[in-house]
Amino acid sequence: MKRSTFLILSITGVYSAVLHAAAWSVNNFLMTGPKAYLTYSSSVAAGAHSGMEECKFQFGWERWNCPESALQLSTHNRLRSATRETSFVHAISSAGVMYTLTRNCSMGDFESCGCDDSRNGRVGGRGWVWGGCSDNVEFGERISKLFVDALETGHDTRALINLHNNEVGRLAVKATMKRACKCHGVSGSCSIQTCWLQLAEFREIGNYLKIKYDQAHKLEMDKRRMRAGNSADSRGATAETFHHVHPTELVFLEDSPDYCTRNASLGHHGTEGRECLQTGKNLSQWEKRSCRRLCTECGLRVEERRTEVVSSCNCKFHWCCTVRCEQCRQLVAKHFCARRDTAATAPNHIRRRNKGHKR
C-alpha cells in the first residue's frame, strides 16, 4: 500500500510541476518513497513535459490547441473527461515519459539500465545480424508504466479507457523504432552488417499518434447494464466493449464539446483572439484553412494586424572570430480571430455547430 501511495503521489507531483511551470527539484520530490524511484523522477517530469509540448505542436492550428489545463483535465478525478482529445493527451504524455526514460538509459544516466543486447548474435536478415547497442525500450516501458498508470486507481470505464490510451502511447514508441546498421568487411565492402534498433525522433511519434487520434473509436457502452447496480453486470458490459478494441487504437467515451466558444470551467479558451494563417511559404492545406476553421466557422471575423518584428540582419564575419549583425525592423501582417459586429453575428451562429470531433 505504501509503495502504491508513493507512485500515485509521485506522478501527481510531476504533472503539477509541468502544469504550473514551476521550478521542479528532485530534492522536493516526495522523499518518503523508495530511493530507487528518485533516480527516474526528473526523467518522468521531462517526459510528461515533452509530451505536452508535442501535443501543442500537433494541434497548433486547430480549435482545441492542447491548452495548459489539458493534462489536469484528463487526470483529475473530479474534472476528467473521456473525449477524443483526452485520449490523445494520455497517449502522448505516456509516450513522452517512456521515450525520455529510454533515451536517458541509452545515454548512461541510470546505473540500473544498459543497452538491450537480447538479440545480439542472431541473424536478422540476409547479410546482416543483430548487434550493437539497441535502445532499451523494455526498460522505458516498465518504469513509465509504474509512474503513469499509477494515476488510475479506480475500476470504472474512464479508468480503463485511460489505461488503454496510456498503453497506445507506449506501443507507439515501439512501433516507430528504426533499424540502424553499420557495415563490416574488407575495404568497406559491407559484406555483412551489424544492426540495432533505436528510437525515432519524437516528432514522428507525435505524427503517428495524431493519425490514431483522427481514427479514434468511440465506445458505445450498454448504459442499462452500466446503471443496473450489479457490479458483475457492469464489469461484463465493459469487458465486452473492450474485447473488440485493438491495442494500438485510441478510444474515447464522450463527444467533444464546441471548442469555438470559451468554457472556463472546462479549461477551453475558445478561438477568439487566436492567430491564423492566410499567407506564407510552404503552408500545409490544414494551415491554409486555419482562418476559416478558427474564425469564420466559429462566427468570428479575420482581423489583420500589423506587427513590428525585430530580427538580426546584414551579419558579417570579423577576423577573428566574431559575427556582428544589425537589428532590422520589419512590419509583418498577422491575422487573428475577432468578434463580429452584433448585427452580423446571428447568421454565423446558426451555421456554427459542433460536428463530430471538429476541433
UniProtKB/TrEMBL annotation:
Claim: Lyase is one of the keywords in the record: no
Q: What is its main location?
A: secreted
Q: What family is this protein classified in?
A: Belongs to the Wnt family.
The record's subcellular location field reads:
Secreted, Extracellular space, Extracellular matrix
Which range is the signal sequence, renumbered to this chain? 1-16
BP-aspect Gene Ontology terms? canonical Wnt signaling pathway; cell fate commitment; neuron differentiation
Q: Name residues in a coiled coil.
A: none
List, in alphabetical order, the Gene Ontology terms for molecular function in this entry.
cytokine activity; frizzled binding
Alphabetical GO CC annotations of the entry are: extracellular space
Reported function: Ligand for members of the frizzled family of seven transmembrane receptors.
Does the keyword Lipoprotein belong to this entry?
yes
Show the InterPro entries listed in the entry: Protein_Wnt-8A/8C, Wnt, Wnt8, Wnt_C, Wnt_CS
The organism's place on the tree of life at top rank? Eukaryota
Protein name per UniProt: Protein Wnt
- The gene is WNT8A
Instruction: Check the record and name the Pfam families matching this protein.
Output: wnt
Cross-referenced CDD domains, in alphabetical order?
Wnt_Wnt8a
Annotated SMART domains: WNT1
Q: Which organism is it from?
A: Patagioenas fasciata monilis
Q: Which UniProt keywords apply?
A: Developmental protein, Disulfide bond, Extracellular matrix, Glycoprotein, Lipoprotein, Secreted, Signal, Wnt signaling pathway
